[in-house]
Amino acid sequence: MEQKLLFTSESVSEGHPDKVCDQIADAILDECLRQDSNSRVACECLATKQFLLIAGEITTNAKINYKKIARDVIKDIGYDKKCLGFDYKNVKIKVKIKQQSNDIALGVNKENKMEQGAGDQGIMFGYATNETKGYMPLAISIAHKLVRVASNLRKSGDFKHARPDMKSQVTIDYTDSNNIKIDTILMSVQHDDNIDLEEFRKYIHDEIMVKVAKSFNLNTDFVSYINPTGRFVIGGPEGDTGLTGRKIIVDTYGGASRHGGGSFSGKDPSKVDRSAAYYARYMAKNLVAAGVADRLEIQLSYGIGLADPISISLSTFKTSKYSDEVILKIINKIFDARPYSIIKQFSLDKPHFKYKDTANYGHFGRGDLNLPWEKLDKVEQIKRLLK
């Protein structure tokens, strides 16, 4: 029997306890930047049964009502009933915020902003592949859409008895490169007590799984698993403690690319964990769109207080007809990965989007948000340099 070549990615909904924390942290960041674009924010949240802790280091001139912001996010997600074990009216909120360390500020706050250093050391990866229109891996793209569609149907009232906490997992079969297909889809969806589980499962299969598969022009004869434990009533922060920054693979490429380890949510753009990861994606996406490679991964590394990256490296996974040296020359000629240059180019300190919106369903490949790091505005320049 032929051994299948399989790859799997997962996603989670906005009601997942870790994502609850990510959204609250980013909503706080949004409000800080709205009032003061020079805000320095490193916000972390922890959520458990009817309790939320907001902590971190924030230096800002903004006046922030942390508890109101958190309650508004929780309500918008759909945690609006006491029976859910975590709801915006009854959750106890504790705030433990202090200012950013002066030692960190020394390296970040420079008179000449172009000399602004990274807020910490670290490595970041950006990735792109031409297997989907959005230059994202197929498995994570489908996984995101499954929980996004399910959440939208829940909020519209069409998906009856569904609660906010959901997870999806998609396995792609790459055995035949001319016939890539879905092998397996797994979904776990929190639900009300005392419901018809078979009817609930049928809705998920027919109205969510099958329709999402068809939207990608893929097969519908996949293996499906739906709430395999048989019951998922207790969920959200009541069922599992949530924490900011714990879904870094969901936030990025579903495991198709390496990850430097730094999370995004709750961090202002002076933190290269966030801004440089966005820029590495921008670099990789433009290079792939220009035909440099079918798949491409960029690594950036930084030192705290230093403006220029310590290193830039790449991998094309043997999908390019150009040498790494040629590609690196192009990178050095047209991309500027210094922290303030990234912030300025993408207007990350005065964004037209809300960081909170990036906390759900991935930070990349988001055609719905018009994110600046998803623009393909360097493609023609790259093509000219390749001639």
Q: What's the Cα radius of gyration?
A: 22 Å
Ends apart, CA distance between termini: 46 Å
Beta-strand segment tally: 11
How much is the average pLDDT? 95
Characterize this entry briefly.
The protein has 12 helices and 11 strands.
Any overview of this molecule?
The chain has 387 residues and is an alpha+beta fold. It is built from twelve helices and eleven strands. The strands form three sheets. A four-stranded mixed beta sheet has the order 1-6-7-8. Helix 5 links the parallel strand 7 (181-191) and strand 8. Helix 1 (17-35) crosses helix 2 and helix 4 (138-156) packs across helix 5 (197-215). The chain is flat and about 65 Å long. The N and C termini lie far apart (46 Å). The model has no long low-confidence stretch (mean pLDDT 95).
Keywords:
single chain; four-stranded mixed β-sheet; 387 residues; 12 helices; alpha+beta; flat; 11 strands
Chart the SSEs and their pairings.
Blueprint: E1 6-12, H1 17-35, E2 40-48, E3 51-59, H2 66-77, E4 92-98, H3 102-108, E5 122-129, H4 138-156, E6 162-173, E7 181-191, H5 197-215, E8 223-226, H6 236-239, E9 242-243, H7 248-251, H8 272-289, E10 295-302, E11 311-315, H9 324-334, H10 339-346, H11 355-358, H12 379-386
Parallel strand pairs: 3-4, 7-8
Antiparallel strand pairs: 1-6, 2-3, 2-9, 5-10, 6-7, 10-11
